[in-house]
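Weekly modeling sync, notes
Attendees: S.R. (lead), two postdocs, one rotation student

Agenda item 3: backlog of single-chain predictions. S.R. asked that every request posted to the team notebook include the full sequence so nobody has to chase files. The rotation student volunteered to paste the first one in as an example of the format we agreed on. Action items at the bottom.

Example entry:
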Amino acid sequence: MYSNEIIEGYRNIFSTASIADACDLVLGRSMFLPFDIKNRVNDKKIVGPAVTIQEEATYEKVPPQHALDAIDESEAGSVIVISGDLALENVAVWGGLMTAGAVANKHEGAVLNGGMRDIAEIRRDYDFPVYAKTVSPATTLGRFKTVSSNKPVMIGDVLVRAGDLIIGDVDGVVCVPQEYVEQILVESQSIDARELEQARLIIQNGSLREGLAKYGRI
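Predicted structure, as returned to the notebook:
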């Protein structure tokens, strides 16, 4: 749903920090996900539209059908985003077999407001980026079930909707609302350029204060 120019533009932004700052400026609200959602597999950056899955507690032993269907049916380049209540951090909502499906369907990555497992397998066989809140050996069977797909989900204080652009790197994960994707990209590129100039001035003049005075960023 996004052009290659948009995707590559975000991929070339130096850090999600610039994108988070751009969201603050343009939207007037935070769009970064909780700090403990981080890449547990590698240092790969991800950029792609969200496919959202909601989980809820259950005693039923049922497979995560909405997630399984989404992995097979979503467009290549998607980011599978799974959320639910706080207890989701105690179980693994993602593992080796789901990773195999995601790789087979050429997805960009996964972002989980919960746990993952099979990290050694995923590193060995796929090197697929999975941004997870926790790591847990526990299955969701008999504990959680998927109840919807491509409906808005909450992760921390951020509402993530299907199609919103997800960007993740070693600094964290940011969700850019789809209607602001172009505007946020332009502002992020401007922030990147100004910070590069500011850093050069600081090194050249040997003064942090001078850099701050001229560019006004910290």
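Discussion: group reviewed the output briefly. Helices lie at 4-11, 16-27, 65-73, 96-104, 119-125, 181-205, 208-215.
Action items: rotation student to repeat for the remaining queue; S.R. to check formatting next week.
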